[in-house]
Amino acid sequence: MFEITLPALRRGRSLVLQPMELRLPAGSLTGIVGPNGAGKSTLLRAIAGLSAERAILRREGRVLDRSAVGFLPQSFTVRANLSVLDCVLLGRREGLGWSVPPAMIAQARDILACFGLADLAARGMNSLSGGQQQRVLLVQRLFRNPQLLALDEPTSARDLHHQLGALAALRAHARQSGTAVIAALHDLTLAARFCDRVLVLGEGRLICQDTPEGALTPERVAAHWRVTPELLRDRDACLVVVPHTVE
């Protein structure tokens, strides 16, 4: 179990989020949801150690070193003429010498294949679309083998097919590796379908941390997203959130 203690989080002089305590099970995918301006990005940057306020991270009661935390911001572009394979290998740049061990190259190719990117291995990063770059950078972070991975809108630049594929692969990776993944998501249906737990932010505080069904109640969605929600079930019995304009 990962325990995260966060102080009050600010953006400049403005208070964005009240202090909070988070618990993330190892091997789980946790979604952060909330309306625009709720503080999702601020929260993730604090977890990654990129804010002025110092978050305390523990795993099974022991303080977690920052090097064990991976972070992927919402918007990041690689303009270097670097191949996709080399970009992934740089995820373990601390362990690279004058030559790259064949086993490490094989591991990089394997993880690219897991995310459907094997055919892009020789392509230059600066030749890829925004969505393709986002997928490669996600793989790079995973290649570092972080214990805790924080992702800000990891599906924002992807089409529907790749949104589903990325979240399914992330969930599978978390369960296989024991990594705790926490991701900001705008799509409540995707959060309900793929996340083990959901954190709801609103009104400058943590509203709840619960299962998707427990977190995304009609009353809570209506109150914080200012819509009239219709909650359905898909063919796999997963929760579907259909928003309607408030009448």
Would you spell out the secondary-structure blueprint of this structure?
Blueprint: E1 2-6, E2 9-11, E3 14-17, E4 20-24, E5 29-33, H1 40-47, E6 56-59, E7 62-63, E8 69-72, H2 84-89, H3 102-114, H4 130-143, E9 148-152, H5 160-177, E10 180-184, H6 188-194, E11 197-202, E12 205-210, H7 212-215, H8 218-225, E13 228-233, E14 239-244
Parallel strand pairs: 5-10, 5-11, 8-9, 9-10
Antiparallel strand pairs: 1-4, 1-6, 2-3, 6-7, 11-12, 13-14
Helix pairs in contact: 3-4
Give a nutshell description of this structure.
The protein has 247 residues and is of the alpha/beta class. The chain contains 8 helices and 14 strands. It has helices at residues 40-47, 84-89, 102-114, 130-143, 160-177, 188-194, 212-215, 218-225; strands at residues 2-6, 9-11, 14-17, 20-24, 29-33, 56-59, 62-63, 69-72, 148-152, 180-184, 197-202, 205-210, 228-233, 239-244.
Protein described:
The chain has 247 residues and is α/β, with parallel strands linked by helices. Helices cover 32% and strands 27% of the residues. A hairpin with a 2-residue loop joins strand 6 and strand 7 (62-63). Helix 3 crosses helix 4 (130-143). The protein is globular, with a radius of gyration of 18 Å.
